[in-house]
Design goal:
78 residues, 26% strand, three-stranded antiparallel beta sheet, 3 strands
Length: 78
């Protein structure tokens, strides 16, 4: 089984959620502790212990950003 998680480090804590269930956050003092907490949340959801949990459908796309030119704009910079 593979879970995608989203997390950030804020001060001394790792805070995150399962990508498909963004409404259910957890935290841990280490990244491993956060992962364990999120796995527990996932198991609780699958056991039906979180009755209103609905997966957030995730879609991916790639964006092409326009090139930003630096200098040489033709303006009188002097």
């Amino acid at each position: 089984m593979k879970l995608n998680i989203v997390y950030k480090k804020e001060k001394d804590w790792f805070i995150g959620h399962i990508q498909e269930y963004p409404d259910y956050e957890s935290q841990g003092k280490t990244l491993d502790e956060l992962k364990e907490n999120l796995i527990e949340i996932y198991h609780d959801i699958n056991k039906g212990l979180v009755p209103d949990a609905e997966p957030f459908p995730v879609s991916y796309t790639h964006l092409t950003l326009p090139t930003i030119r630096r200098g040489g704009c033709g303006g009188g910079g002097g």
